[in-house]
Amino acid sequence: MSETLKLVKDQFSSEAELKKAIDKALDLMEEIYASGKYPKMIVERTWSKHNPVIDGELAQPAAYRWYLKREIERLVENDATVFIKPSRDVLPLHDPLLFDNLDENDWNITQKKLFLFRAERIDISLDRLQHYTGTKPEDFQRYILFTNYDMHVEVFLEMFPDCEKPVREGAQMPAYHHKMENNSGLTLVNIGVGPSNAKTITDHVGVLRPDAMVMVGHCGGLRNHQNIGDFVLANGYYRADQVLDDLFPIGIPVSPNYILNRYMQEVLDQNDMNHRIGTVYTTANRNWEFSKARTVEEIHMSRSVAVDMESSTVATNGFRYRIPHATLLCVSDKPLHGKPKLSGAAQSFYQNSKEMHLKMVIDALQMVKDNYPEGLPNSSIRAFNEPLMGGTE
To answer: How are beta strands 325-333 and 231-240 bridged, if at all?
Structure first.
């Protein structure tokens, strides 16, 4: 296959013609990949003095067709010329060269790119995503919720009984997809416990370019006047988990998306829910209370209001991969105030909080969809030399 398809605004007399041509381009990309080649996209931008031509290879374009469609349409409408053509042969997943070609340490952050991830990385991540979640990558929706409790899964299934479910039992991080047109629905993933799992799932979800990722979890409340059942909306993180320290310097601040947080707070206020906004302390040590002196010192210095094991990891990878993110936690225990997480009290708390917790996050995401149907502004998580396909310049 050697066909090259060209998209330029002057070719089309109407928006409908442009959309039809983009669909044809996406079909061609999928055909190229099915033939054993990576599809390559070349973008000519006459307005750019320093990077007038950028290009990139893709893999499994059907898995994030909605995203490619949106971004190509933006490019053409802004007078860019887009070319689609076959590139090199697809590298098999068992080829030893695969990992040599996807090392994140080789990212060139000084040169503007078309796409954040190389084709090999997309291939391996989507294969692993299917393995971990038991669902197909193309089933993932644009708004992704992470939990580590079966009860949130139960509530999600009650709300969306016809959602797409894992095709096999025993998936390590089962995913559930409330599918809507243009992938505008919701995905819930039960990621299990701990920052390692949080990194694993966000490493692979990142290649799908979701519009938002939200951690929906529980936490230990750290302030005197917090009560079990209160909520915590993160506005910052203390990264004591250390999982990403080698990849992302600890000194770089990571903050949730401002608009998403604003909608979360609106929903909390509308439902008259007690909540605090503040720093979430994330640790990799489930039993940090057994040697708490240093942890408590860090909690005091950071003014943290809650402690958990996943939130900062999800947020840091959201920042690394340029995905808007947020965290809404519910206080399940107060480890510094004589209220540790014990079996009986925990079960009662879970039953009382699970429905409202998930519903409020979904309501906030609906506000995002209503007000920003083409994705949240992401200039706060992109630098001046960031990939073009990831938001407007």
So the answer is: antiparallel
